[in-house]
Amino acid sequence: MHLSRDFPYLITIFTLVFSTHYSRSGAAINTVEEFLDTLINSSRYDRRIRPFFDQRRACNVTMTIHINTISAINEVNMDYNTDLIFRQSWYDPRLNYSGTDWAAKSPEITLHYSLIDRIWVPDSFFRNAKEGKRSDITVPNRLIRVHRDGKVLYSQRLLLKLDCQMKLQKFPLDNQTCVVNIGSYGFATTDLAFFWDQASNISAIRVNEDLEMPDFVLSNHEAKYCNRTTATGSFTCLLVVLHLKRLFGYYLVQVYIPSMLIVILSFVSFWIDHKSVPARISVGLLTVLTVTTQSSGIRSQLPRVSYIKAIDVWMSACLVFVFAGLLEYALVNVIARKGELRQQVRFSKEVIGNRLAQVHFYKKDGGHQSNAETMETLVHKTSNAERKLSGNTTNTHVHYSSMSNTNAPSQPTPQVVVSQPAQLAIAAKPVRDSAQFVDLISAVLFPVAFIVFNIIYWMVYLNMHVEYILK
Ligand SMILES: *[C@@H]1O[C@H](CO)[C@@H](O)[C@H](O)[C@H]1NC(C)=O
């Protein structure tokens, strides 16, 4: 009865003695376990309450970032992967142990990674993270170090996939600006503020010296602030700005030089005789097909953006050049055929004129000269001679056959027939030249146009500036 009445008092006394023993007299703490249990005892440390909450002061967190790798910069998904060490440092007065004699033994103590669940940590998050995980090989990659004045260092290694909105107008001559955006999820600036660590006079952002990216170089990086006000209050925000410069070499070797060579190859067509139809058609078609295949190969690696990229301009121009080369042949072919037709008409007119003159002559002569040459050999000769010029005999053959029927009795002398090809060659000369002339003009004009296009293209795209708005 007596004991039960005094029991609450006994417990109070016991608790008082106990807590005094552990918190005031540091001498009694002999092992690290005891020390930690004292430091992060749930009865004196509430991890739900932020530091300086009772003083109504903001908790200031300083940060540094060490970028290990940047990889998989992806234009299609507009993101990149990074492996970074994220360090946050803040003061937590409750973890100040400078009063104890443990402070002399060790000015700072590194806690086990699992103890992060027992202390307050800032609720930092990556605003532009699409995916992310902590590195857990072989144990969670975390460091928690408590200095005797209560300064906590919390470092962790993170593998993040971060969003990076790319501007591809100049692709592949472009530079990209990607960011790492760090904010506090819940605490407003009155409670929690993030700062870049300026203490040690070195940049808060360090980049691995042997950072290698296959198609980019990190030209510069900056540490910026991006504090912002949203519907739920104003929040602290830090920004790592990574300036990435695309390495043009790959695209030069894989895209620009091959397509340039194909366009030049299509110009070869102008030097081929316009009468060799298969050669010129195949050069034209193959170059068009190759450029089309090439541009579709590039397109598959890029997002479907609505604006025109530098590579689109290039590939379209190449396609226009090779296509124009093919059209030029169509034009040359038409001109050549028209010329041929005109030449045939002229030829047949001359033949008819000759024959008429002969008929006239024979009639005048009144005699029918006997000639060793038959009608068949005559026609054969003329058509042979003509084949040399035009390559097309069927029309003329029929023509002569029909004509020879009408003029069956009158057989011209051989020397008249022999003189025909010479006359034809003279008659056909200007006709053949006009087709060749178009080819000659094209052989000069196309390369000049391509060179001019190249000068304009490279001048425009090497000097073009694309504005980045950082969010
Ligand atoms: C944090 O920084 C702000 C402004 O820089 C300052 O007013 C405040 O006292 C700091 N808080 C602490 C706990 O030092």
TrEMBL record:
The chain crosses the membrane at residues 248-272, 313-336, 437-460. The keyword Glycoprotein applies. The lineage of its organism: Eukaryota, Metazoa, Spiralia, Gnathifera, Rotifera. Residues 390-414 have a biased composition (Polar residues). Its main location: membrane. It is found in: Postsynaptic cell membrane. It comes from the Eukaryota. It is a multi-pass membrane protein. This is Gamma-aminobutyric acid receptor subunit beta. SUPFAM superfamilies: Neurotransmitter-gated ion-channel transmembrane pore (SSF90112), Nicotinic receptor ligand binding domain-like (SSF63712). Belongs to the ligand-gated ion channel (TC 1.A.9) family. Gamma-aminobutyric acid receptor (TC 1.A.9.5) subfamily. It comes from Adineta steineri. NCBIfam families: LIC (TIGR00860). One of its GO terms (cellular component) is postsynaptic membrane. Keywords: Cell membrane, Chloride, Chloride channel, Disulfide bond, Glycoprotein, Ion channel, Ion transport, Ligand-gated ion channel, Membrane, Postsynaptic cell membrane, Receptor, Signal, Synapse, Transmembrane, Transmembrane helix, Transport.
